[in-house]
Amino acid sequence: MKLVSLAVIAALGGASFVAVANPISVENLNLQTIVQPDASLSTYEQVSQRLAQHGINEKNRPHLFHVLKTTDINQASQSEMGIASVSGLANPANTECDNEKVCSFFTDMGFRTATDSNGNDYVIISAINSETAPTTYTFLDLSLVNEHGEPITIPRFIEYWGEGVTKKRMDITSVGRLRDILPKLMAAEQIFANAWVTVTYINASGVEVAETKQMSMEYSKDTLLADLGYVRNTAEGQGLEVFDPTAEMTIQPASSYTQIGASLLEKGVTAPVDRKEIDNADPTNNRIKVCLNRRYDDCDIDAYYDPGTPNDQIKAVVPFTGYRDVMGRVTKIYRPDWSTKNVTFDDNGNPTYTIDPKGERPVELYHGTEIFIQTKELGGATALGGGYQGSNHLFSDHINLKYFTKKVGSMTFDMTRISWNIPRSKGIFGDARLYGRYEDAHWIMNLSIESEETRGPRKMTRRYSYVVGSADMPDDQSWKDIEHPPLQMVFSCLAKGTMIKLANGKELAIEQLSVGETVLGASQFAPNVHIPLEIKDISIGSESQPMIKLTTESGKELLLTESHPVVTQSGVSSWANKVQVGDRIRTASGLELITQVKEQKYNEHVYNLKLARTADDPNHSPGETFSMFANGLQVGDLAMQTDNEFEELVETEQDVLKRIPEAWHKDYLNSLNK
């Protein structure tokens, strides 16, 4: 066990070990202009400037700056010898990084509006960085800015110390109250999501190094304001030009806009959506439940494959359908390799497409048009198709465009509807065994396009990204609405042949049970009081993850999925894969010692039961879950498994200091004293 050194604590005047302490997030209310990259400076100098605007320097982050200097010296030495710099994050050792698996994933999560519990409207932008390789430190900053780098939303930076409860997902949000930032949005000529990340890690040579990425994604100002219910009231211009960012700007005052009371643009997602078990009180709890191996009433997306399908043939498949209107006439869709799907429209707005295989990444874009699934646990991201078992089709293959005009009073606006329809058979995101049981798998649809747009007295060709999908919400306030919840990957349950104890004392294999029969079990509130429970439903599926085999001192054995709840001596349930040799668990005959825990491959059906008190039991309690006896061991039913599917973890300062290398202790403690 690593402990913070006494010398470090003494140097800092002591340290507190009580608060939840990772990650450390700070709003920088005094920042006037975001520092932009300067190619004339070294990487070290550029990073130093970016960090300095947030008060981070060599004095308060000594180890970070040591790593930055070492990396800069090594890169300069390699450059002198003619050695090209290779990213150890994009291609980490012993990892397959290909079209399907993006090992180093940095992305903008888009612009969204949300209303808090007090009825205040906010604009929220967010970004994610996720690495497959283990990291020792991650710095992120983010703000919505204008063409001069002046913040529109409140600039925020965040520091992640190693990989704690956030695991492989490092994210950041920047918010602004709508009434405060609306004048800034109207006054801007251009609007960008400006994000920066610096990551440190141990490379293949065992040396700690740093890598930095910067992203400046332009949003369509007219589309953004139209989403908020504001449109320009200037006359339509003539001619076509490519926008020159060095030209003198003509700032449009707020009086140049008309509030129309509702969004001019329409949009909608019909898949994936959360249809069941919706929490209206706290929408941040909502998830789109993807059942990878079972068909059951709690699944928003049922298992795609029939029970008994061999595990190596089970894929994670998710349908995507919806549409999104944007201002202007879309002329190109950028594909992942930067080739383009070009479009022309006839007089009725119907498209004709051609593919241009040659292409370069425009400076305004970061990702091509692509769908990603990103999880806390997996690291990086998984792209749609990506060549997995021949599924080499692209998101852009399923996109259709329609050009039209819409009148608001005396004004006419050009618009394009971007629609997509990816059936589940085509929404392939790799082997289901990659996913495990993931609480919030973000789905990120990135639409990168070129469009012709009217801007006051002129028309321009511009390139934008639109993002549709889920994102984490700021957790320092409560929210009334969440537009798109994340996915939740779930599995099931108990192995075929597991003997379930009935209310009459007999036992029957779980696959032979029927709805309406009664089994012996207990309430979560009184695990030691055995009562008859009625089977309300039965879940049947197949398991693509290794199962856990538990053995007790009396020889009882049970094969169950890794996250199936097992009732422990205290009466609290624990995941099966968290049970250890020497633990005491509850059984039908009392407490027993666990003598063996091991993983075991499994290719048969798996089952679980949903239980309820019988009709003549007067002690019904809302939200109550139950346990039953499987091969004599007390384990949870389907409702208990759902409640315990994911762990709520919190870290204190002491936890972080035990986990991170001692070289980082002073940097970390300094971050708490800001």
Topology readout:
Elements: H1 6-11, E1 24-27, H2 43-52, H3 62-80, E2 101-102, E3 104-115, E4 121-131, E5 137-146, E6 156-161, E7 170-177, H4 178-187, E8 191-202, E9 208-219, H5 221-227, E10 230-232, E11 241-242, E12 257-259, E13 267-271, E14 288-291, E15 294-295, E16 315-317, E17 320-327, E18 329-334, E19 340-345, E20 351-356, E21 370-374, E22 381-383, E23 399-408, E24 411-422, E25 428-431, E26 442-455, E27 458-469, E28 487-490, E29 494-495, E30 499-501, E31 507-509, E32 518-523, E33 526-542, E34 547-552, E35 557-560, E36 565-567, E37 573-575, E38 584-587, E39 590-600, E40 605-613, E41 626-630, E42 633-636, H6 638-643, H7 653-659, H8 665-672
Parallel strand pairs: 11-27, 14-28
Antiparallel strand pairs: 1-6, 2-22, 3-4, 4-7, 5-6, 5-8, 8-9, 10-12, 13-17, 15-33, 16-25, 17-24, 18-19, 18-26, 19-20, 21-22, 21-26, 23-24, 26-27, 29-40, 30-31, 32-33, 32-41, 33-40, 34-35, 34-39, 36-37, 38-39, 41-42
Helix pairs in contact: 2-3
Question: How would you concisely characterize the structure shown here?
Answer:
The chain is mainly beta and 674 residues long.
What does this molecule look like?
Keywords: Signal. By secondary structure, the chain is mainly beta. Helix content is 11%, strand content 40%. The chain is built from 8 helices and 42 strands. Strands 2, 11, 18, 19, 20, 21, 22, 26 and 27 form a 9-stranded mixed beta sheet that branches. Strands 15, 29, 32, 33, 40, 41 and 42 form a 7-stranded antiparallel beta sheet that branches. Strands 1-6-5-8-9 form a 5-stranded antiparallel beta sheet. Strand 38 and strand 39 form a beta hairpin. It is globular and about 85 Å long. The two termini are 27 Å apart.
